[in-house]
Amino acid sequence: MQRFLVGLSKLILGLVVAFTLLSFAGVATARYFMGRLSILPPKPLYGDELPTAPPTADAPEEVAVEPEVAPPPEVVSEPEAAPPPEEFPETEAEVDEGAYTAVVVQPIGLVLREGPGVEYPQIGGIDYNQDLVVLEEPAEHDWINVRVVANGQEGWVKSGNTRPRE
Q1: Which residues is 104 bridged to in the sheet?
Q2: Tens digit of pLDDT for each residue in 49-79?
Q3: What architecture is domain 92-164?
């Protein structure tokens, strides 16, 4: 009888240790993946990443062109004075009639395009919580024409990613 109780206690102790180890391994694995998934992806870059223009019907096929080599920079003895920055309207009283100020609510920012659609090339980007002036909202309400308050750049963004500024 004593051998039976010793064997039973070993079995129960082995099961408890095994479940404990499996539990700790599961918790550690879950914490690892939760930590990895909580890191935000890198912010998209704008400006220099302009896509190539879509080919038109009358445009010739693509021809391989060798890259141009830039000439060495010229040395300038005295730097020229930079022009003063332009002032852009920042309040609703200063914007055009029918336009209103808004703020970007899309956490990753917005892509600014030349026209109302993804087929138009990118001309820049607008950061999250940045002010802009909504110039036009067409009847379709898919895209809106905006001007960035910070630099005065005008373009089109997908609607629904801004809210009017109070």
Answers
A1: 162
A2: 655 556 566 655 555 556 566 666 665 555 5
A3: Roll (2.30)
